[in-house]
Each structure stands twice: as structure tokens, then as C-alpha cells.
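Q: Could you write out the predicted structure for this multi-component system? I'm mainly interested in how the pieces pack against one another.
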Amino acid sequence: MEKEFLQIITENQGIIHKVCSIYCDLEEDRRDLFQEILVQLWKSYPSFRSESKFSTWMYRVALNTAITSFKKDKRQPDKSGVAYESLQLAEDLYDTAVEDQIKMLHKAVSNLTGIEKSIILLFLEDKKYEEIAEITGITQNYVRVKMNRIKKKLKLFMNVEE
Amino acid sequence: MELKDLKSAWETYSSQEVNKHRLGKETILGLLRNRTKSLVDRIDRNIRIGIGVILLFVTYVVVDSLFLTKLPETIVDQTVEYPKWLVPIDVFSTFLIITTYLFFVIRYIKVKRNFSIDLQLKDLLKGILETLQTYRRMFYLAVIILLLNMVVGFAAGLYLGIKIKADAQNLEISNLNLSQILSAVGIGLLILVPLIALMFFILRWGFNKLYGNYLQSLNDTLNELDESEIASE
């Protein structure tokens, strides 16, 4: 089972990296969350039934772990914005506009709640409301309501920044 | 800026991030082998330590009643009489510690039985909250029992002190000067009460410092889910 698990995680590790990227500002937190998600996936892997897609199940475990992860006070997320300024984006891959958009997105996302972060991540990953509802375990109606609020929040925050 | 622009920016950024942080099988295996403990794992460990402490405590009580109280006179002053009224209190408090702990362990196991990280978020949040609340109740109960034991210990010490003093004067306790007894009790209480209050507040502060913010954030997330469900109806 370990081999099978390793294979499937290696192939789908992008999901964990993306979740860590949305929920963590600091590299140290990101590493810790990555490991915590990995451990939770391993522990709950025996209970995975193929009723849903593996990626759906993996998103659910990763997002649940991120939302409920326990941080000690000294490592609370930095909301000062300093961490985002130090985002190192490869210059040869991005133009300035993309880099600005990403910095702005990270800043805006840091003002969202844990649930909102999960919804915006799945939205950015091009998931349909139906799939977002399945992953997060909430109703499609609620996802729609939430998505409208998130859009307003993001637009408001980004306009303020512009 | 439009959200669709953000989507394409995110796509570029996230794929670059994934490539930058991509790990090989060996590294992933290493991370799994050197796993850190999550909060619930740590609570599990604390409960197992608690069971170990309870077993040691029971062993100590048995050894104490069977052997230590019968030590030779050179070690234990056999002339000092152990007040009989303390025996049922002692037995009761020991029984209370063991049964309440076992009660909470059984309750904790029941809560944990339905607990899994791949539950729906709402059920998961309720599960973690219930786990932490059971743990908190157990913690407070342990503190209260500890403080009760301190009070019993204080009462026994005070009684023996007065008894020794009475014996030294060849008197019965009832013949001692009442004001002397009252002043001894008063001074004792003056020391004991602030000490108990201080201990209680330090332990409560410690628990809240450790888990207070986390409990608050879990409750906030749960409330957010409840509120939004109402709004979407």
C-alpha cells in the first residue's frame, strides 16, 4: 500500500503545493503544512473509497487539514504584507503585470477566511460549483453566495491597492 | 482587474510553484517517516501519558497502603496517629481520580471513533471541537482534584499539628485554647486560599494560552458555515 500511496501522491502533489501556497505566507509554515497534509493523507488513505475521484478526496483532506491546522501564537500568519513583497517570482517566466497580479492576489487572499480561501482556490483551479460543493461538503447555493462575497471582497481590496 | 485575469495569472504562478517545490518519492517517504504530530495526535499522546500516570498512581497507593505505612519506627513516627476521618476522604478522592479519568478516556475514544480528516468540514470541525472540549473538561477536573487533594492535605497537616501540640501538653484537642486553634486555621487558610487560586489561574491561563485562540478560530469557522447556510436558503 505504501508504494501505491507514494506513486499516487508523487503524481498529484501539485494539489498539496497549491493548498499550501494559498494558506501559508511563510516558507516555514508552508513546509509544516505540506508535511501535515501528507501525514493526514497517509492516515486516511485506507478509508478512501473510489466513490469520488482521487483528486476530489485529496483536495478535501488537504483543505480540511489547512483550515483546521493548529498554529502556535508565535507563528500566526503575517498580515502586514511584508511577506508578499518578498515573493520571489522568476523574472524570465512572468511579465510585470502577472507578477503584480499574483502579489495582489496573495495580499487579497490573506484577508479571506479559511473557508473563503478554499473556495477561491477551487475557483482559480477552474472547478465547477458542483465540484467545489462536493470537495468542501457544503451546498452549491452556499458556494454561490460565498463566491459572490469573495468576488466583492477581492475587487474591493484590489481597487484599494491600485 | 477581472477575475478571469487572475485565473490565468494563478495558472502561470501555481504551475511554476509546483515545479519549484516538486518532491521525489524518497523525500516524500522521508517526510512521512519523520512525521510531526498534529494537535489531535498530541492530545492522544497526552491521554496515553495520563493513563501511565494513573497506573503509577494506583501502584503507589497500593504500595503505600501495604508496605510504606508499616515501615519501622526509625523511619516513620508511629506515635503520630493518622486521623481516621481522612481514610474515607483519601479512598474517595483516589476513586474519583481513577473513575473520572476512565470515564473521560471512554468518552474520548467514542468521540474519536467517528473522527476522520476526510469528513465534511462541518462534521470535522464539530469532531475537533468535541475532542478539545472533552480534553479541556478532563484537564479542569484534574486541576480541581489536585486542588481538593491540597485542601485535604492541608486539613490533615493542620489536624496533626494541633494534635502534636495537644499531646505535648498532655491535653485533649478539645481542651486547647480555641483562639489558638482559630488563629492556626486562619493563618493556614490565608496561605492556602491564595495559593490554590494562583495555581488554578495559572493552569487555566496556560490552557487558554495554548488552545484558546485555536478553539476560537474553530468556532468562528463553524459559525461562518452555519450563517452562510442560512443565507443561502
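A: Regarding packing and overall arrangement: Chain A touches chain B through 62 residues (CB under 8 Å).
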